[in-house]
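Me: I hope this is not a bother. Any chance you could explain this protein sequence and its structure tokens? It all follows right here:
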Amino acid sequence: MENTSYIVIGNWQLALAAALLIVNIGLSVVLRLGLGRDLIVGAVRMTVQLALVGLVLEWIFETRQPLLILLMALIMAGLAGVAAVQRTKRRFPGVYWNSLVTISASAFLVTGAAVTGILQVDPWYDPQYLIPLLGMVLGNALTGISLGLDRMMEGCVRNRNWIETMLSHGASRWEAAHEEIRQALRTGMIPTVNAMMIMGIVSLPGMMTGQILAGAAPLDAVRYQMVIMFMVAACTALATLGVVLLAYRMLFSADHRLMNSRIREKK
């Protein structure tokens, strides 16, 4: 412990931090928000999940076995793909598979380019770099996929009459769906664009703050954060584009018909 360049948080310090939730629970009780139980359950779940992840990562960091690291990466991508669809209001056949394929392909492509071409990590599967970088791009791509899918399906349902009118007048499926695709892509990428706009002025991102707390020089932490945000922007764009185009192929048939019957409300 003496060799660390940061303050090690002990169990009693975690307990003090958890006591801050009294503010939330107090407000819930006083204002009758009905969130007290959810706050407690959420805090317990978060604590258990993070503790388990910490133990698994510590083990993987010690073993440094490529297969274990890749297995961890695949599990992370799979969970992210499922979580992205869980946030949508509507579903269609194959939506989970579409989400899994697009988020995995985009995240692995961008993270692979970063660790091998930009950071030049040796070996490239070093979990100290690969796992955190992959986790950050997956988290943001997840949001982009969820928002893009939601907007695409919502647009097809809300504008069904207009889309079918265009198709009946000879428009191709691409011409009829183009505006919905454009709006879905824009919706999926807006959170990332907004985050980039205010970063460093309104907010200090977690990656940079964590490195500074761990003893890194502020300018080094800033450079890492810039790399992260460029990765996030690229991965979110690729993932959102991929999942929206796959949704387009599912919802618009090859003979230029809108297949709205394939969209189902979330139960």
The two ends are 50 Å apart (CA to CA).
